[in-house]
Design goal:
Layout (H helix, E strand, L loop, with lengths): L1 H10 L14 E8 L10 E5 L5 E6 L5 E6 L2 E8 L6 E7 L4 E2 L4 E2 L12 E5 L5 E7 L5 E6 L2 E7 L7 E7 L3 E2 L3 H8 L11 E13 L2 E10 L2 E16 L5 E12 L7 H6 L8 E11 L3
Parallel strand pairs: 1-7, 1-8
Antiparallel strand pairs: 1-4, 2-3, 2-5, 5-6, 9-12, 9-19, 10-11, 10-19, 11-14, 12-13, 13-15, 15-16, 16-17, 17-18, 18-19
Organism: Streptomyces catenulae
Protein name: YceI family protein
Family: Belongs to the UPF0312 family.
């Protein structure tokens, strides 16, 4: 009954007539559904020519639809969404016509095996902690921390796990020696007083597919703030020495003023270094100790 009601509601939505097509072009009207036939928003669609080159790409709207205008010809579609099997198909676009293939139904992808319960050590040689910031609103600055250590304690339920990471503040590296020295100074990280950035996360929430949220507390510049990591779990593998590894990617955004790093004060002094918002990206591999 609920599914029938939703389908009737969708059928009653106001109809907007399609816009006219440019001369000599055709249109491709796609719809993507989930396994129970409901529209899926935000699904990535890549349209490629027969040589494999991407012609255009887009994402479905809240009604699970995407319309693209193309030159006449045969195209290959690659439809992807996290937690679902990719779907591939071919379509023919005809000049002056709107091609509407059957709705593409995505199926759930097999769940990746989770790491075994117990302690895992972060491997700094196969991990990276990078950041991106604006240079006073102009070009981007890219940097990384070269020295860090930490571990994962995986619970019997993944939701009961925790992670701890300690980052050596003085290991900051943006590729410019003068700028790095300035970032280590008392006006920024103040590495003499605060030699480490520390993160401790004890809240793991499954968001679907391979997506998790890891929430914890970051200590930076003597201040503690709650931080949320948008995390993609990559699964289990075996290293060259036969060791068991697990991996993930995570991203978060930090605001300097949350950690008493006053960028306006810096600008008032004529110091042009790093903007107020910093994007942090992590590529982590962890090893199961013998």
């Amino acid at each position: 009954m609920p599914l029938a009601f939703l389908n009737r509601l969708r059928d009653r939505m106001p109809y907007s007539p399609p816009s006219p097509l440019p001369g000599g072009a055709g249109a491709l009207d796609l719809r993507v559904d989930d396994p129970v036939g409901l529209p899926m928003a935000g699904v990535a669609v890549s349209v490629r020519n027969l040589g494999g080159q991407e012609v255009t790409r887009g994402r479905t709207d809240p009604n699970g639809r995407l319309t693209v205008t193309l030159r006449p010809g045969t195209y290959r579609l690659v439809v992807t969404s996290d937690g679902f099997r990719p779907e591939r198909s071919e379509v023919e676009v005809v000049a002056g016509e709107r091609t509407a293939p059957r709705p593409i139904a995505l199926e759930p992808a097999p769940a990746l095996p989770l790491p075994a319960a117990g302690q895992w050590r972060i491997d700094p040689d196969h991990s990276a902690i990078r950041f991106t910031a604006r240079h006073i609103g102009l070009a981007e600055i890219h940097g990384r921390f070269n020295r860090f250590e930490g571990g994962l304690w995986i619970g019997e339920r993944m939701e009961d796990s925790r992670v701890e990471v300690a980052i050596e503040a003085a290991s900051i590296d943006t590729g410019v020696r003068m700028r790095d020295e300035h970032l280590r100074s008392a006006e920024f990280l103040d590495v003499t007083r605060f030699p480490y950035l520390q993160f401790a996360g004890e809240w793991f929430v499954h968001k679907g597919g391979s997506r998790w949220t890891v929430q914890g507390v970051l200590q930076l510049h003597g201040v503690s703030r709650t931080v949320q990591l948008d995390t993609r779990y990559l699964g289990i593998g075996t290293g060259i020495a036969g060791e068991t590894r697990t991996a993930c990617q995570a991203v978060t955004e930090l605001h300097r003023e949350d950690f008493t790093l006053d960028w306006r004060k810096m600008l008032a002094k004529g110091i042009a270094a790093i903007g107020a918002t910093i994007r942090v990206e992590l590529d982590i591999q962890a090893i199961r100790p013998e």
